[in-house]
Design goal:
The chain is mainly α. The protein contains 14 helices and no strands. The longest helix has about 35 residues. It starts with a helix and ends in a 6-residue tail after the last helix. Belongs to the binding-protein-dependent transport system permease family.
Length: about 300
Amino acid sequence: MSVNTRQRDRWTVLRAVRGTVLLGFGAFCLIPLVWLLLAPTKTDAQLVNGHPLSFGSLAQFGRAWQHLVDYNDSVLYQWIANSILYSVGSLLISVATSLLAGYALAVSRIPGRKALLVLTLIAMMVPPTALVLPLFLELNTVHLTNTALSVILPASFYPFGVYLAFIYFSTSLPKELLEAGRLDGCSEAGLFWHLARPLAKPLIGLLSFFSFVANWNNYFLPYVMLSEESKYNLPVGLGAVVSGTPALNPANGGSFLPITRPEVALAGLLVVVPIAVIFVFCQRFLVRGILAGSVKN
């Protein structure tokens, strides 16, 4: 057997091993999502005793949805509306402030610029849960707890977005373009709005996706800030539903709620589907945003 033949066989084996490993990781990630999609179509007994990936019926899916809707006078719709309000409100503020702060740090030489960058990095490393208690005390002082602002304002603090915008504008925005704009008499605000902002569309898409995912899945902050059930977002509200069902809490065996495992799976699906839909529509911007800034100029 020649050297070329042995080398070709070795590469064939390596490709087969690599393909097998990738398929294994793909199945590991995909199978739970398929199970979550199929679970609400089955009854509780079918879910426990049947094949994990079998399909039940659309009628059972409708009954599971109706059980969730019937909970506490259809408060589910209010939770969905609250989640959209909290997520979109935080997204708009965090993306706007991140772009402006990142642009200012990248193109100007303001006093204390390095100190601000260091503080931004430190803020990125602090776990958000560690700040919930001082934020609660601060917002309680100004009587904002149990309001939409108590969730939107803290979630708008986005140091990761500021640093990402700083990296993007430092590496991808040509300084010659800004100088040409200044020579034409454009103001600093005009440079940002007419030159930097149109070139930052991939960055805006990336920041919007990360911010939306973080705020849509936000559980601990709304759980601490909100005390009325009608003001919960979807994760906190569904957590209250799940905690009251005997399906996952046997201590609630006498509960009258018709919430069993299919309804719990449908609740999980409600949280996952919006993120999956947004990812499908934004994936082009996500790839361009991640790659932008990796190569200077």
